[in-house]
Amino acid sequence: MTEVLNIFLKYILPFVVAWILNLIMGKVFSKERLRGKLHLIFLKGIIMAFFWAVAALFAMSGIPAFSKTWETALASSGIVAVVIGLAAQSTLSNVFAGIALSASRSRPFDIGDRVAIDSIDPGFVEDITLRHTVIKTYQNERIYVPNSTVGSATIINYTQDRSYSFPITVSVAYGTDIYRAMDIMADVIEQHPNHFGARPTVLCKEAGESGITLRVLVETRDFRDNPRTCSDCLIEIMKRFKAEGIEIPYNKLVVLQGNE
Hints:
Number of helices: 9
Distance between the termini: 111 Å
Number of domains: 3
CATH architecture of the largest domain: 2-Layer Sandwich
CATH topology of the largest domain: Alpha-Beta Plaits
Order of helices and strands: HHHHHHEEEEHEEHEEH
Largest sheet: 5 strands, antiparallel
CATH class of the largest domain: Alpha Beta
Strand order of the largest sheet: 4-3-2-1-5
Radius of gyration: 30 Å
Mean pLDDT: 77
Strand content: 15-25%
């Protein structure tokens, strides 16, 4: 019985304590509480990894062959650092890149932001770990990007500002009252419940071969509302144009059939 107790205290208890501490960390620092606090999320991962490392060292110190684990670890820390650095260069680069990303005051994103990292599909930042950043796309795909790649990449943040805007374009036929068409587009967008900001400005973008192209930005407070708002506004603009006799030009195919 005494031997079983000793085995439990030496080899099992350290991991049980580490598990309990990590469980407490997960409860206290939940995802909801840490949302938008990227540096604390990354710090939480480092602390949890530290708990497991200490538990492993305690367990190893109970083995006769590793009875001087602590002394050996301290004495050979320099050699171990060199060996680990050479053997895990990519892993350590990810860890250090993650620290730099999370600790920077001008960090490019936070949890919940929608970003595009180089040529990777845009998505929402779901999590950041010691090794990678997790991006969730609209198709519910999760992309795991190494932190070292994120640290050296060109990042577009779509949600860092207080609002988000996206352009819609509509062509009208030559001879149309351009200013009336502009007023209709501005009215439709301004009256939409998701519209944010001042009255939108409609600009004449191009005088093309078949019509005049008008362009306007649809601005919403939340990025998630923008695609639906753009769709609603475009449909309503087409309805208003039809009701007021404003023609939207389109290519027509005319077939001429000659008599024999």
